[in-house]
From TrEMBL:
Pfam families: DUF1178 (PF06676)
Protein name (record): DUF1178 family protein
InterPro entries: DUF1178
Species for this entry: Falsirhodobacter algicola
Protein origin, superkingdom: Bacteria
Amino acid sequence: MIRYSLKCRQGHVFDSWFASAGAFDALQASGHLACAECGETQVEKAIMAPALRPDLSAPVTEREKALAALRERIEKTSEYVGMNFVTEARRMHEGDAPERAIHGVARLEDAKKLVEDGVPVAPLPFLPRDRTN
């Protein structure tokens, strides 16, 4: 898909999406493009600035930077136990496993049960890396 800023002979400017540059050319040549305001069929591409996307993997705001730093610190100082989080947290609480910092995945009802049973757990403000794109 490609988006063009278009301009009709009357000076109206509007945007429209096309399957490809060739699709725009074919529609324009056949007279099947019309101004969104006045219906004029003589439509051409208007001058437009490119839409540049920022690198989505890099934090942009201060909040995102702080969250990225928190994630890095947690990942460096704790063990990821994945889906075994509930079992491992309970084992540590009951003295059946060595105490250490862990993080992982838990269903909401299982996390609530841990809290009710006095197991010290807290949700993290991010998803595990294996559950993100």
